[in-house]
């Protein structure tokens, strides 16, 4: 344990928990998805589309995507914090990361509900 | 206070040619590399999902893209990255629960992660890509 004085409101515990919670959601979805694909054996547009037309799979896939994007935010942010030392550039990379991930979330909603 | 902690004497070994990253270390850096690569490939994957779900025509074009030999190699690598990240992630969750934190167990579990993730990659790759 490093001997240091802590001041401030939070020390990353929330992100630590979210990283693990989203990991569990993605792991469970991965197993469900592989089982569904193995059971359906989609070989055409209709059968492939049918998987995501199902209400439960649509909800689960949406939850999976949101988990991917939040999980990716924490992971990529950690990479920037480890390797990008100039504050301005690091902030820019973080903002760019959030921006693309929020955009991807909108895109994922559009894919799932406009198909 | 913080300075005092840093000045504590720690063992040092800077004889670089003799330092070899142990398997759990390779697993760890691959966890990061695979995560970063999957982040960079997100737009390609979303585009692929969109094409596959929009219409029979775009489905066919997505299938054509996936059928390209170069895309197959990228996708096989992606499946391995996903499976490695998945298996190594489960190992980390178990380490969080204090399971397998001893040196022997940690080395053993990292071997299992490599074996299982590579096996899953070959099975899924064979089913989906070929």
Features:
heterodimer; A: 115 residues; 3 helical TM bundles of succinate and fumarate reductases; 4 helices; B: 130 residues; mainly alpha; elongated
What would your notes on this structure say?
The complex is a heterodimer of chains A (115) and B (130). Chain A has helices spanning 13-40, 45-53, 55-83, 87-113. The longest helix of chain A is centred in the middle third of the chain and has 29 residues, at 55-83. With 115 residues, chain A is an all-alpha fold. In chain A, helix 1 (13-40) packs across helix 3 and helix 3 (55-83) packs antiparallel against helix 4. Chain A has a single domain (13-113), classed as Fumarate reductase/succinate dehydrogenase, transmembrane subunit (3 helical TM bundles of succinate and fumarate reductases, Up-down Bundle), CATH 1.20.1300. Chain A starts with 12 loop residues before the first helix and ends with a helix. Chain A is built from 4 helices and no strands. Chain B has 130 residues and is an all-alpha fold. Chain B has a single domain (25-129), classed as 3 helical TM bundles of succinate and fumarate reductases, CATH 1.20.1300.10. Chain B contains 5 helices and no strands. Chain B has helices at 2-7, 23-54, 56-67, 69-96, 103-129. In chain B, helix 2 (23-54) runs antiparallel to helix 3 (56-67), helix 2 packs across helix 4 and helix 4 (69-96) packs antiparallel against helix 5. Chain A binds chain B through residues 2-5, 20, 23-24, 26-27, 30, 34, 45, 48-49, 52, 68, 72, 75-76, 79, 100, 104, 107-108, 111, 115, and chain B through 1-2, 4-5, 32, 35-36, 38-39, 42-43, 46, 49-50, 52-56, 59-60, 86, 89-90, 93, 96, 124.
């Amino acid at each position: 344990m490093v001997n240091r004085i802590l001041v401030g409101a939070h020390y990353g515990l929330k992100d630590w928990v979210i990283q693990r919670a989203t990991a569990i959601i993605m792991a469970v979805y991965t197993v469900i998805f592989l089982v569904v694909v193995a059971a359906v054996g989609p070989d055409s547009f209709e059968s492939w589309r049918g998987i995501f037309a199902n209400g439960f799979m649509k909800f689960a896939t949406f939850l999976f995507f949101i988990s991917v994007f939040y999980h990716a935010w924490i992971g990529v942010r950690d990479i920037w914090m480890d390797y990008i030392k100039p504050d301005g550039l690091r902030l820019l990379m973080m903002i760019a990361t959030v921006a693309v991930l929020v955009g991807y979330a909108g895109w994922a909603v559009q894919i799932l509900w406009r198909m | 206070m913080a300075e005092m902690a840093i000045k504590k004497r720690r063992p040092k070994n800077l004889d670089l040619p003799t330092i070899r990253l142990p398997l759990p270390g390779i697993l760890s850096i691959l966890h990061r590399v695979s995560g970063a690569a999957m982040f960079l490939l997100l737009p390609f994957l979303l585009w692929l999902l969109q094409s596959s779900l929009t219409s029979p025509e775009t489905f066919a074009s997505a299938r054509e893209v996936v059928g390209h030999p170069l895309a197959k190699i990228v996708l096989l690598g992606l499946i391995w990255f996903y499976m490695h990240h998945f298996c190594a992630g489960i190992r980390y969750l178990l380490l969080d629960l204090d399971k397998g934190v001893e040196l022997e167990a940690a080395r053993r579990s990292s071997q299992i992660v490599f074996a299982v993730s590579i096996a899953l990659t070959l099975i899924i790759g064979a089913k989906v890509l070929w």
